[in-house]
């Protein structure tokens, strides 16, 4: 009886659904992307602090300073929080192909190999 | 910065730290003008403190003391005290007097807390206002004495410690003889009047 080649074993973790892809899109960033996000956050926070202080001092109202800083925070959470593809995924990592050692590979009809 | 939660956490905490630094700079921008200047901030008096009439001056034999009450007019502008670092100003009028037997007496006769957003109370105008407490003397020596009135204020800033100031409003003389004969009421003024809390 010719043994048909059994279907190669595919672990469910290699099959990704849309929620997995969405999570990976939002969460992951390249190293270059992380550096860019850090620069964006620190520089715009400094600039926003200067603007907020000047606006508050001229109007003599500290609430203006606080509101401007909170607006800056929410803007940055949208700009630098999720991993947008255009900015933060320009140089992705190159992963090698998986190599399974020969003695662990599953080959059709080779049950005798186990009785070594 | 390698995960979404890490990035959001970084942004939120940086904002908090920057707000702290801005509050410190806020305090430093106001501190020299309030203390080290040669002309510290003071409220401007629009109508001077004036006594309209003494309505209760009684020798109370039940509590064994003198009690004095009057009505007064006063208008003051507290807006010079408000800068962008002020949260609350507590203004009060106090009367100080000495008698031959007691060396120092001070009674607060009117007070009000004036928050930052309460724009219409930044100018305090009082007309025919009664004090909140009687001016009393346990030794019954209050006839024909000098009483000095002061406007005092305490400022509570957004960033920094509380501080205050004092301003003299003038002196008046208590009447030479008692006016009313009956036992005094619990508080000056008509009963059930509205307090400015």
Automatic annotation (TrEMBL), chain A:
| Cellular component GO terms, alphabetical | signal peptidase complex
Query: Which cell locations does it reside in?
Result: Endoplasmic reticulum membrane
Name the source's superkingdom: Eukaryota
Which keywords describe this protein according to UniProt? Endoplasmic reticulum, Membrane, Transmembrane, Transmembrane helix
Q: Name one GO biological process term.
A: protein targeting to ER
Membrane-crossing residues?
Answer: 64-87
What kind of membrane protein is this, topologically? Multi-pass membrane protein
| Matching Pfam families | SPC12
Similarity section:
Belongs to the SPCS1 family.
Relate the protein's function as given in its record.
Answer: Component of the signal peptidase complex (SPC) which catalyzes the cleavage of N-terminal signal sequences from nascent proteins as they are translocated into the lumen of the endoplasmic reticulum. Dispensable for SPC enzymatic activity.
In Swiss-Prot or TrEMBL terms, this protein is called Signal peptidase complex subunit 1
| Organism classification | Eukaryota, Sar, Alveolata, Ciliophora, Intramacronucleata
UniProtKB/TrEMBL annotation, chain B:
Where it mainly occurs, coarsely classed, is endoplasmic reticulum
What topology in the membrane does the UniProt record assign? Single-pass type II membrane protein
Enumerate the InterPro entries for this protein.
SPC3
Question: Would I find Secreted among this entry's keywords?
Answer: no
Which Pfam families does the record match to this protein?
A: SPC22
- What UniProt keywords are attached to this protein's entry? Endoplasmic reticulum, Membrane, Signal-anchor, Transmembrane, Transmembrane helix
GO terms under biological process:
protein targeting to ER; signal peptide processing
Q: Which GO terms describe its cellular component?
A: signal peptidase complex
Any transmembrane segments, and where? 12-33
Instruction: List locations, semicolon-separated.
Output: Endoplasmic reticulum membrane
What superkingdom heads the lineage? Eukaryota
Per its UniProt record, what PANTHER family does this chain match? MICROSOMAL SIGNAL PEPTIDASE 23 KD SUBUNIT SPC22/23, SIGNAL PEPTIDASE COMPLEX SUBUNIT 3
Into which family does the record put it?
Belongs to the SPCS3 family.
Recorded protein name is: Signal peptidase complex subunit 3
State the species of origin.
Answer: Halteria grandinella
What does the record give as the organism's lineage?
Eukaryota, Sar, Alveolata, Ciliophora, Intramacronucleata
């Amino acid at each position: 009886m010719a043994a048909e080649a059994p279907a190669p074993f595919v672990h469910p973790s290699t099959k990704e659904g849309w929620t997995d892809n969405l999570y990976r899109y939002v969460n992951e960033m390249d190293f270059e992307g992380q550096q860019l996000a850090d620069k964006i956050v620190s520089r715009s926070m400094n600039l926003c602090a200067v603007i907020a202080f000047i606006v508050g001092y001229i109007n003599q109202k500290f609430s203006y300073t606080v509101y401007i800083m909170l607006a800056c925070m929410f803007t940055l959470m949208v700009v630098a929080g999720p991993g947008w593809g255009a900015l933060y995924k320009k140089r992705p990592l190159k992963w090698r192909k998986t190599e399974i050692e020969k003695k662990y590979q599953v080959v059709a009809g080779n049950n005798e190999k186990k009785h070594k | 910065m390698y995960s979404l939660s890490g990035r959001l956490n970084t942004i939120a905490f940086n904002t908090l730290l920057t707000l702290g630094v801005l509050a410190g700079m806020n305090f430093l921008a106001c501190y020299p003008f309030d203390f080290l200047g040669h002309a510290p901030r003071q409220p401007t008096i629009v109508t001077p403190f004036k006594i309209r009439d003494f309505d209760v001056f009684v020798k109370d034999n039940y509590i064994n003391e003198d009690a004095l009450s009057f009505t007064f007019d006063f208008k003051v502008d507290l807006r010079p005290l408000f800068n962008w670092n002020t949260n609350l100003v507590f203004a009060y009028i106090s009367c100080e007097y000495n008698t031959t037997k007691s060396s120092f007496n001070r009674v607060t006769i009117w007070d009000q807390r004036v928050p930052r957003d309460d724009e219409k109370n930044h100018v305090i105008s009082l007309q025919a206002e009664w004090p909140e407490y009687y001016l009393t003397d346990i030794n019954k020596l209050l006839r024909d004495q000098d009483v000095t009135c002061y406007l005092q204020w305490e400022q509570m800033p957004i960033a920094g410690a509380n501080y205050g100031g004092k301003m003299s409003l003038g002196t008046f003389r208590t009447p030479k003889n008692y006016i009313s004969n009956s036992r005094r009421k619990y508080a000056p003024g008509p009963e059930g009047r509205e307090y400015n809390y």
